[in-house]
Amino acid sequence: MRIELQKRPIASRLFSAFSPFLALLLTLVAGAIMFLILGKPPISSLYTYFVEPLTDTWSREQILVKATPLVLIAVGLAVAFRSGNWNIGAEGQYLIGGMFGAMLPVLFNDWQSPLLLPLMMLMGMVGGALYAFIPGILKARFGTNEILTSLMLVYVAQQFVDWLVRGPWRNPQGMGFPGTKSFNSSAVLPELWATSDAHYGTIIAIVVAVIVWFMLARTTKGFEVAVLGQSPRAGRFAGFDAKKMTLFAFLLSGALAGLAGIAEVSGSVEKLDDKLSLGYGFTAIIVAFLGRLNPLGIVAAALVLALSAIGGEAAQITLQVSDRAARVFQGLLLFFVLACDTLIHYRIRIVRPRRHISQGVA
Amino acid sequence: MKNLVIALAASAAALVSTAALADGHAKTKACFIYIGPTGDFGWTYQHDQGRKSVEAAFGDKVETAYLENVPESAEAQRPIEAFARSGCNIIFTTSFNYMDPTNKAAAKFPDVKFEHATGYKREHANVSTYSSKFYQGRYVQGQIAAKMSKTGVAGYIASFPIPEVVRGINSFILGAQSVNPDFKLKVVWVSTWFDPPKEADAAKALIDQGVDILTQHTDSTAAMQVAAERGIKAFGQASDMIKFGPETQLTSIIDEWGPYYVERVKAVMEDTWKQQDVWHGMAEGNVVMAPYTNMPEDVAKMAAETEAKIKSGEFEPFTGPIMKQDGTEWLKAGEKSDIGTMLGMNFYVKGVDDKLPQ
């Protein structure tokens, strides 16, 4: 017996629209079951997880801080995914972007100038774009599988940044701990308001999301992305160049991941250290799909994922569940998002074994 | 999407609101930030044993909570503050590089008491620091190593070149040289507190270089397990690791945090908590040696005697004559190191076959 996926002639519009909500609901149900198994009261656990963090300013700020890199990365990924380019290596581009942007304050620690921050952001985008260019050009020129190359480059980036902050860039006064010197104040993204942890990266992320939304929805470029993504053949007839699109998709998603990296480095960490890679580049893939590859949907989805991360910490504190529980939630969410999407577009068909059929013929 | 979550959860909130308020207000809440998992069977495991001692000592009057795997980076700030906001009265942050986040949080929450393990910054009146004289146990281990080693070389898996770690290395080699003046020590820096595969790799590398005794300043049992596989002897770290090397462990330095944690939580309850900097050792029961196993009786006897002498204060490992690695004299015969030099130790003594990372 074999199980096959058969494309439905028409996908239900109703379910297409509700798919993310359905996935969220299923995640909550599965989460409740998980808490039951862990011996925790499920409803109040879910409350701690998903509501309590929304009830005070401090937690809301933390959610904004967490959501910021997710929005930036996922918006770029949405363009790549829509155009049929599977950039799975945003985590690496995020790291290299952070590293490129940090280059200025690390190498010129005393340099203070109003130009510094814009330059750092620009450098971050350049770094991320250059790093994404590698899988991009490999795909466009040689037809390599971009899923593999972009993913593998994540590990290269992780090791490289790790080496930098333990070796040549290590703070000489840092007692041997990996990490550069702390940046001076003109290399730090300002806070949104005094004594806040939220920084201007959040504003940048929202502006970027709106711009990319506009590009996708209202410009020829956006049309080109959609056509080439849905039907490369039709795109060719329309005179669109799929190879150029591949490069565009990788450069754009890489630049935004790099921007996320330097925004995080400059706004939150205030130095480059070995703990920059927290998996934002991978979580952003969940965010992109949960947001239906729509930049505005992505802003909402990033807030949900950030909420689950902050709620996960709250749950550790008040419920004493392991930090793994938060990751299980994220995994469940992606699983249900993809499963719902798949089942909306395909139906499951059970194929009888061939032996049976041939017997019938004989 | 967010609205859906709010709506869903709001209905849930209505169901549980009474239960959430049922918490007693009189309870003292003690909270712990851990660098590794409580199941590392080393450093974090021992701190968690200390937390359990607090629960055992005060029962209903106390509530405890902990967060594990909190990275030593800017990411530590949020969990520490989350603890302070969740009503913790006292927060123990149990790794060196929580130093700045702890002090930053202390500034924001003046009513919460902070206790930072192994650090030296007390920037606010509500921050205390505490540590143990682990180096006392290292000296005993050095003596045992020199007696037990056939190659005359021991291996040391080190984490970060902070004074606490350097002090341990120096004390170990001084103990070894008191038995065998030509004893050598090889050091591998792994730049992590807890990373079992990395610790295991370091152990293998050291064994391949000919060491036949292993000791470590990292948190997992990986090195002990490698030593057991390769048939050499090793010292446990932070906790009794005999289960992971029944025929391998010679002894282990056991960190006993329980008495200190109980004392400090009690001080919060009785409103007598004051800022302090505490450095206890064998005499106070904070540094305990695991049973001397897998060694001849005379070696065990020697170790026990040294332990007793350190405990009674009759002997102090950092007593001259001691030469620095570069050949200059550090302490004259009979001279004892001052506390400042010990706390800021940033040099090797003679016999360490390694260059101290700067």
Question: What key attributes describe this structure?
Answer:
heterodimer; A: 362 residues; mainly alpha; two-stranded antiparallel sheet; 14 helices; 2 strands; 3% strand; B: 358 residues; alpha/beta; Rossmann fold; 2 domains; six-stranded parallel beta sheet; 15 strands
Account of the protein in words:
The complex is a heterodimer of chains A (362) and B (358). Chain A is built from 14 helices and 2 strands. Chain A is mostly helical and 362 residues long. Chain A has a domain at 63-302. Chain A starts with a strand and ends with a helix. Chain B is α/β, with parallel strands linked by helices and 358 residues long. Chain B folds into 2 domains: 26-132 and 257-280, Response regulator (Rossmann fold, 3-Layer(aba) Sandwich); 134-247 and 285-353, 3-Layer(aba) Sandwich (Rossmann fold), CATH 3.40.50. In chain B, 40% of the residues lie in helices and 20% in strands. Chain B is built from 11 helices and 15 strands. Chain B has a 7-stranded mixed β-sheet, sandwiched between helices. In chain B, strand 8 (213-216), helix 8 and strand 9 form a beta-alpha-beta unit. The longest helix of chain B has 20 residues, at 2-21. Chain B is globular. The termini of chain B are far apart. Mean pLDDT of chain B is 90; it is low at 1-25. The A-B interface holds A 20-21, 24-25, 28, 41, 43-44, 46-47, 50-51, 54, 56, 58, 62, 166, 172, 175-179, 197, 268-270, 273-275, 278, 290, 300-301, 303-304, 307, 313-314, 316-318, 320, 322-323 and B 1-2, 4-6, 8-10, 12-13, 15-16, 19-20, 31, 65-69, 71-75, 78-79, 81-83, 85-86, 96-97, 160-162, 189, 191, 357-358.
